Amino acid sequence: HGFDGSLAEVEKIYEIAVNGSEDxxxxxxxxLCGASLTRGWNVQVPQLAGVLMPICEVFGSCAxxxxxxxxxxxxxxxxxxxxxxxxxxxxxxxxxxPPLEHVMGDVTPVGTQLTPEYLLLVRNSQLxxxxxxxxxQSNSNRLxxxxxxxxxxxxxxxxxxxLTLWLRQHQACIASTLSGLxxxxxxxxxxxxxLNMMFKKINRGGQxxxxxTSGSSNSSGGGTEDSSxxxxxxxxxxxxxxxxxxxAALTACAHGRLSPRELATGLKDLxxxxxxxxxxxxxxxxxxxTRGLWKPAFMNGTDWPSPAANLxxxxxxxxxxxxxxxxxxxxxxxxxxxxxxxxxPLAALVSLTITYKLDRATERFLNLIGPxxxxxxxxxxxxxxxxxxxxxAQKAKRWSDFLVFSASRTVFHHNSDAVVQLLRVCFxxxxxxxxxPISNNGGVGALLGHGFGSHFSGGISPVxxxxxxxxVHRSVRNVMFMTEEILxxxxxxxxxxxxxxxxxxxxxxLKKTKYGLRYGQVSLAAAMTRVKLAASLGxxxxxxxxxxxxxxxxxxxxxPSWFISVHGWEPDVGGGSGGMIAMLGGYALAYFAxxxxxxxxxxxxxxxxxxxxxxxxxxxxxxxASALEGKISLGCNRATWRAYVSGFVSLMxxxxxxxxxxxxxxxxxxxxxxxxxxxxxxxxxxLLGIGGVGAMGAAAELIIDSGPEVR
Length: 711
Description:
4 strands, disordered N terminus
């Protein structure tokens, strides 16, 4: 009957997939996985993962002895059901990210710790959460019955031994080269059968892809038929042998026993036989590219496909996209005269992808390989990504703009100066301090743009700098250096704001006019508005780039280091508007620090991350108290330091009083004493006033010592 995709209908189909006959199981699971891939159900990812894992475990353990024919004539087997479910599960897991991100960068970027264990942990937490709404709780309970119709008990990865075994093999493949294939074992027999199936012509010619075991690997045509019979095995068993098959095939290609075309054809035959093997293909090739042990493949059009037809055009368009955004990279095509090469595993993966037809049937498989291919190309030396984009642009011209834009993002992975330029453009565009075609008068619209195609420059649609940074920040190799760069750009932006709003000649003229003070206050207010905007942008960039760890590093290490150091940008207090610039700089840093903290911890204690807040705040406030007592020598301008301390404390008193209640009372007393030395009695009293019962005595002493003006 017709399938409407409702949750009630899904429940019925899943019960059939678990409890029905063999034919009914295959039919029901096929409908369930196919609908998940095509309909885009509005289901939470962790709960959907909990549904897919038992499907993968069950149908991956079934031999393809039974098939089911759809009305369209398509024949469905357990391998097809498993491959659909497994492919969807990998997409939920962000499968393509780990290999490169475990190797590159000092700090793991935000949001990449999405593992199967984590998905199940979140799923179990959602079901056990007592605070969810009745509607959410009802949906959670119904979805839990999909993954286990008989109960709403938590699900753990140990419940799926076959999936767990594959995950261990996947992780081992990333960690080290392959070993452990022993002739005569069941895994070896499957390995031998897969090679015979993939490379029939070579086997019929008497050649062997495994010289160390040539006696057992050589097969005739009859042997190939026998191997196909031996491969009527569960999908999990086949996947266990696939890494060894890939290693043997790639080694044979590297030593000339297998041509690049034969390698690509064999890989396609393997993927057609068991589409789920694409996951292992991606895993193995990604790991081998990262290891860098293979010789390069020359993309000359003879052995491997050639990008020469449009490579120069792609590189030119990349330059134009970056220039239109405001980033100038002197020479991206410095090695244009050298032959185009790719690492051998990457060349094999690219060749495999371009053998696929662009139709609905192969879309989900290309969606699995595509992100991994993009991540690998970005991590390889320039111009690997333009080469990949050129090859795919030849195959799918309608994707050309997207492919070129994807290649342009990898520039920031290889060129740290380009990252700094992009950050600078983010500041100048947001503050309205440049003449970019997309900046206009500044603000969020200038930072994030108004949609693609809203502005054109020389035939190229400029990408708003904020949008571009959101797409490239994960490609930054050294995340820690970004804090210093953002901090430096923030302070230079303050100087530009002051020069724009409070130029020295204007300040001197205002002093001599009747209403000079009033106009000066208006200019200062306008400057402060822009300073707050710059600080909020800086805090957003720090949070987006490195998350909680980078914010804590900023407050514990980067800011104290900045105050201790001497900075060339700071003007003398007595020169023109120099004192005003120094003061604005201090307030900018105060807003920058507090906003960064609120992004990471929140203003209250509701977030789990807030548990780390007391330690970080204590370290920072102890630094401030020590500097106020003269125990630490500062290199920054005194006006900057004073504005920072008073601004930071004022913001915490007004906006985050919960923070101060977590601080040691003795530290608060030291801060309060330093503020009193600056004649900031009201702020010192307000600081102690939010410190809770422990600070009441110190507050009373301050009131008594300060006299009637405070009372």
